[in-house]
UniProtKB/TrEMBL annotation:
Keyword list, A-Z: DNA-binding, Transcription, Transcription regulation
InterPro entries: DNA-bd_HTH_TetR-type_CS, Homeodomain-like_sf, HTH-type_TetR-like_transc_reg, HTH_TetR, Tet_transcr_reg_TetR-rel_C_sf, TetR_C_Proteobacteria
HTH tetR-type domain residues: 12-72
Organism: Pseudoxanthomonas suwonensis
Molecular function per GO: DNA-binding transcription factor activity; transcription cis-regulatory region binding
Protein name: TetR family transcriptional regulator
Ranges annotated as spanning the membrane: none
DNA-binding positions: 35-54
Record PANTHER family: HTH-TYPE TRANSCRIPTIONAL REGULATOR RUTR, TRANSCRIPTIONAL REGULATOR TETR FAMILY
Length: 204
């Protein structure tokens, strides 16, 4: 029984090594300078092995973006609860978002994705489609709270985007675009509280 399983385990290990090497290369060299040759050398596998797992650099990068999105997806966030105060639930969601935004891998890959999208409109469209295919935890929460009659949000997706924009205006774009330092825990708490209070003052 062990022998048939061994190749699969080896294949999985090689795939994991390729993805890890690609993340490192994209982070250090950027999208344009990273090649499948570099990734293969870094992963310690042949170029053919890399292509056996991923048809090209675009597909490999898209896989990494998917993995990054999964890390911050609904799976790790608390869903809407009808029996709990809105403010506490929203603060929990926003703090979850802030933890993701302050993850070094996420920040570095976000920079790579933005730069890659500027040079390749086709890749930018693909990344946006992948983003659109996932309903973020915040959107799902706002949709559920509005359906329950506890929020006056006729367009839950728009309302959730407003809340995310309030957060990212302090905890994402300054760090990504202007190399500002990451927020301290106290600063994160202040951003979360003010964003949630502004949101509820309008939609609550």
């Amino acid at each position: 029984m062990a022998k048939p399983d061994a190749p699969a385990r080896l294949t999985d290990r090689k795939r994991a090594a390729i993805v890890d090497a690609a993340v490192a290369e994209f982070r250090t060299a950027g999208y344009e300078a990273t090649s499948m040759d570099r990734i293969a050398a870094s992963a310690g596998v042949s170029k053919r092995t890399v292509y056996n797992h991923f048809p090209g650099k675009e597909a490999l990068f898209a896989h990494i973006v998917d993995r990054m999105l999964l890390h911050g997806s609904d799976e790790y966030a608390t869903p809407y609860r009808a029996d709990a105060p809105l403010r506490g639930q929203l603060l929990e969601l926003v703090r979850h978002k802030l933890r993701l935004l302050h993850d070094p891998d996420f920040a570095d890959l976000a920079r790579v994705a933005i730069a890659a999208g500027l040079h390749s409109p086709a890749l930018a469209r693909e990344l946006m489609e992948r983003l659109g295919q996932r309903e973020h935890a915040m959107t799902a929460w706002v949709r559920a709270a509005a359906a329950d009659g506890r929020l006056k949000a006729p367009d839950p997706a728009f309302a959730a985007m407003q809340l995310e924009s309030l957060v990212k205006g302090f905890a994402f774009w300054p760090q990504i675009a202007m190399a500002q330092p990451l927020l301290s825990e106290a600063e994160q708490d202040a951003v979360a509280a003010s964003a949630v209070d502004m949101f509820l003052a309008h939609y609550g």
